[in-house]
């Protein structure tokens, strides 16, 4: 494992800038709407009470955008997620439940069209064999933000599969399976369970699955408002884990907005 001093450093605002770039039409539409509301509020044709109402709506909308950007900056730039170095020090890679050292000879990274680690996994585990699965082609829907992400930051390695299951990976052969902000893109519950069953199939007896997701909770509603409905409930994840016959070895939060599940057989 390389030290954090030798790994390439990202800009302090790299995560935030990518969120804006990937979703720029939404932000442009929101800003145009806010400006329109402000212009209408200043119109002399409107009664004072209606002007105040329009200004209030514009302020709320602006504050909501600001909150979502600040939350994204906190998660992707100011927290340990930005560097991903914490994975090398987590119980998923350093020790099992009995305290014995664990091997990470083979790592499988599952993404949904965009590598959230930005290739840093290859620097953190330079001696490990790392393969990837890209779920995006199997989702049968077009996400403009993911299309932009793929064009600007294409994958550095070719995935071994683009499917939710039937990966060309041997049973019980993966020591660490990382699924970062990808599993929620599988919107159908039965398909998610199929994904979890496939992850269990390839997971070594002493291996760990590290699942990283936003959860539909109060903190994420406060930060992202209706955007939080795109995330899954905590109970949805627990249901997938149980139906796939997996166990939660450990779970914790990175910032109030992101939950990490360490799963095992």
**Distance N to C terminus:** 25 Å
How confident is the prediction overall: mean pLDDT?
89
The strand count comes to 6
Low-confidence stretches: 1-7
Task: List the secondary-structure elements in sequence, H or E.
Answer: HHHHEHEHEHEHHEE
Alpha-carbon Rg, integer: 21 Å
Strand order of the largest sheet: 2-1-3-4-6-5
Structural class: alpha/beta
Provide the helix percentage: 40-55%
The major sheet is characterized as: 6 strands, mixed
The number of helical runs is 9
- Coarse shape: elongated
Assess the beta-strand content as a share of residues. 15-25%
SSE map:
Blueprint: H1 14-22, H2 24-41, H3 48-78, H4 91-94, E1 106-111, H5 120-124, E2 129-134, H6 144-152, E3 174-180, H7 189-202, E4 203-214, H8 218-224, H9 234-243, E5 247-254, E6 258-264
Parallel strand pairs: 1-2, 1-3, 3-4
Antiparallel strand pairs: 4-6, 5-6
3D structure, described in words:
With about 260 residues, the protein is of the alpha/beta class. The chain contains nine helices and six strands. The chain has helices at about 15-20, 25-40, 50-80, 90-95, 120-125, 145-150, 190-200, 220-225, 235-245; strands at about 105-110, 130-135, 175-180, 205-215, 245-255, 260-265. It has a six-stranded mixed beta sheet with strand order 2-1-3-4-6-5. β5 and β6 (about 260-265) form a beta hairpin.
């Amino acid at each position: 494992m390389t030290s954090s001093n030798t790994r390439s450093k990202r800009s302090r605002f790299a995560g935030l800038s990518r969120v804006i770039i990937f979703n720029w039409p939404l932000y442009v539409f929101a800003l145009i709407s806010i400006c329109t509301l402000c212009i209408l509020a200043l119109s002399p044709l409107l009664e004072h009470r209606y002007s105040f109402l329009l200004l209030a709506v514009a302020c709320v909308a602006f504050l909501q955008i600001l909150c979502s950007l600040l939350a994204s900056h906190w998660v992707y730039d100011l927290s340990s997620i930005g560097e991903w170095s914490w994975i090398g020090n987590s119980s998923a890679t350093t020790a099992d439940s009995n305290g014995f050292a664990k091997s990470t000879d083979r790592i499988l990274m599952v993404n949904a069209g965009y590598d959230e680690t930005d290739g840093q996994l290859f620097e953190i585990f330079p001696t490990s064999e790392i393969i990837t699965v890209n779920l995006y082609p199997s989702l049968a829907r077009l996400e403009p933000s993911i299309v932009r992400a793929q064009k600007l930051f294409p994958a550095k390695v070719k995935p071994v599969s683009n499917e939710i299951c039937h990966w060309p990976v041997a049973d019980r052969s993966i020591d660490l399976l990382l699924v970062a902000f990808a599993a929620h893109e599988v919107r159908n519950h039965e398909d998610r369970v199929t994904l979890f069953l496939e992850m269990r199939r390839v997971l070594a007896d002493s291996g760990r699955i590290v699942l990283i997701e936003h959860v539909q909770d109060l903190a994420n509603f406060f930060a992202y408002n209706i955007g939080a409905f795109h995330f899954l409930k905590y109970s949805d994840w627990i249901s997938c884990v149980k139906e796939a016959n997996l166990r939660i070895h450990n779970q914790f939060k990175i910032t109030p907005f992101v939950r990490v599940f360490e799963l095992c057989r």
